[in-house]
Amino acid sequence: MSNPLKKLAGHTAIYGLSSIIGRLLNYLLVPLYTYKFTNPADYGVVAELYAWVAFLIVLLSFGMETTYFRFSQKKENEKSVYSSCFKIVSIINILFLSIIFLFNNQIASAMLFENHSEYIIVLGIIVSLDSFSAIPLARLRAKEKAVKFSIIQISSILLNIILNLIFFLVLFDSKNPEQGVLFILLANLISAAIKPILLIKEYFDLSFVKNRELTKKILLYASPLVIAGFAGIINETLDRALLKHLLVENQYSLEYAEAQVGIYSACYKLAMLVTILLQAYRYAAEPFFFSQAKNENKNEIYAQIMNYFIGIVCFAFLAVSLNIEILKYFIQNPAYWVGLKIVPILLLANVFLGIYFNQSIWYKLSGKTKFGAYIALIGASLTIFINIIYVPIYGYWACAWATLIVYFTQMLISYFLGQKHYPIPYNLKRFFLYIGVSIALFFIATEIVIENSYLDLVVKNIIVVLFATLVYKVEKTKKIAL
Q1: What angle in degrees, to the nearest 10, is found between the helix axes of 298-321 and 4-27?
Q2: 140 in Cβ contact with 8 (< 8 Å)
Q3: Coil, helix or strand for 333?
C-alpha cells in the first residue's frame, strides 16, 4: 500500500510547480508595475480592482469545487455531479454578466472609478471565464491529472506575462496611467480565455439529463460554503477596498487614498510568498483529504500533515521576514518601501490562515459546512469592525493587524469546534513549539544590530537554518506508523 503522505507530497509538488512558477512569474510583474506606475496611486487602482475579483470568484464559482469533490466520491455518480455543478455555475454567471452589461456605469461610479466603466466590463468577463473553467479544473484534480492541470495553468500565466511585457515595454505611455490599467485587464482577459479552449474536452463530457434531487443536495451543501468563502474573502481582500473608501470619507484626497492602497498591496505581495505555499498545498490537499476519509488511520494522517505544514510555513515566515532588506528590491520603486514593516505581521497572519485551512477539513468531511460559514462570518464581522474603527487613524497598519487578529481568532474557533464535532488528535505541543520558536527567533534576530550588511544577512540566515534543523530533527524522531 502506498504511503498517503508521499502521495500528497507528490501531488503538492506537481501542483506547486504550476502554482509557484505561476505566482513567481506573476510576481515578476510587480517590479514592472511599480516601476512603470511611478505614482503608487496608479498601482492602487489595479490592486483594488483585483481585490474585487477575489469576491466575485467566490460568488460565481458558488463553492462548486469543494462540492464536486464531496459528491463525486462514488465513480458511478461522477458525471452527473460534474454536470450539475457546471450547470449551477453557468446560470449564476449568465445572470452576473447580464447585470454587468446593464449597470456598468452605475457600478463604476459607486466604486469611485468615474468615466471608467470599461474596467468593470472587462473585469466581469475575466471572472466569468475563470468561473467557467473552475469545475473542469477541479475534475482534473479529482482524477489526479495533476500534469494536465499544471500545463493549463502555466499556459494561461505565461500568456498573461508575455502580453504584459509587450503592453508595458512597447506600447505603454507613462503619461497615461489609465492606459496601463486597461492593458493589465486586457492581458488577463486574453489569458483567462485560453483556459476554456484547453479544457474543451471536459465541456463535451457534460450530461444534460436533469437530476433535481441531486441539484438540491448540491445547493444545500454548497450554500454555507459560499457564505464561508465570501466571508473569508472579506478577511483576505476587503481591507484594500475599505482602505480607499474610508480614507476618502475622512477627508483624505482620492489620490492619497489610492496611494495608500498601492503601498499596502505592493508590500502585501511580499507577505504572499507564504501564500504561494498555501495555494500549491490547497490544490492537492482538498481532494486528498476526501480520498482519505475511509482510511482507518485518517485522523493520524491529518494530524501528522498538520505538523509538517506548520513547520514549513513557520520556516517561510522566518525566511521572508529576516531577508526583507533583500526582498524589498522586488518592489522597484522606493516610494513603496515605507510599508515594509507590515510584512512580518501579514506573514504571521498567513501562517494562521494555513492552519485554519487545515483544520477546516473537519466540517467539510462531516458535512457540517454551516460551521464554516459561522466561523467565516465572525471573521468578516471582526475585519469590518477593526478596519472601520482604526483605518481612519492608522491607515494600512490597521489593515495588517486586522488580518492577523482575524486569522488567529478563526484558527482558535475552528480548533475548539472541530474537537467537539469531529475530533482530530493534533499535537498542540508541536504547534506551540514551532510557532513560538519562530516568533522568538524573529524578535531575537531583529534585536541583533550588525553594521556590516553582509554579515547581518549571514547571521539572520543561520537563524533560519537553525529553525529548519529543529523542525527536521523533531519530525524525524516523531513519525507515526501508516
Answers
A1: 30
A2: no
A3: coil
> Contact 387/234 with Cβ under 8 angstroms?
no
Cα separation of the two ends of the chain: 10
C-alpha 207, offset from chain centre: 31
> Could you identify the residue written with the cell 513603496?
336
Q: d(Cα 208, Cα 205) in Å, to the nearest integer?
A: 10
Cα–Cα dist 142/89, whole Å: 18
Helix/strand/coil (H, E, C) string of 199-213? CHHHHCCCCCCCCHH
pLDDT at 402 over 90: yes
Instruction: Return phi, psi of residue 333, to 5°.
Output: -100, 115
Place of cell 458558488: 62
Contact 57, 130 (CB under 8 A): yes
Q: Is the pLDDT of residue 433 over 80?
A: yes
Q: Is the pLDDT of residue 76 over 80?
A: no
Q: What gap in Å lies between CA 125 and CA 88, rounded to an integer?
A: 18
DSSP 8-state symbol, 173: -
| Residues sharing a CB contact under 8 Å with residue 389, sequence separation 6 or more, in sequence order | 398
Q: Tens digit of pLDDT for each residue in 338-372?
A: 888 999 999 999 889 888 888 877 777 777 777 87
Q: Residue 89 and residue 422: Cα distance in Å, rounded?
A: 30
**pLDDT value, residue 442:** 92
pLDDT tier, 482 (very low <50, low <70, confident <90, very high otherwise)? very low
CA–CA dist 332, 184 (Å, integer): 18
Most confident of 76-85, 206-215, 255-264, 377-386: 377-386
Q: How far is Cα 453 from Cα 461, in angstroms, rounded to an integer?
A: 12
* Calpha distance 172→179 (Å, rounded): 7
pTM above 0.85, yes or no: no
Q: How many CB atoms lie within 10 A of CB 438?
A: 25
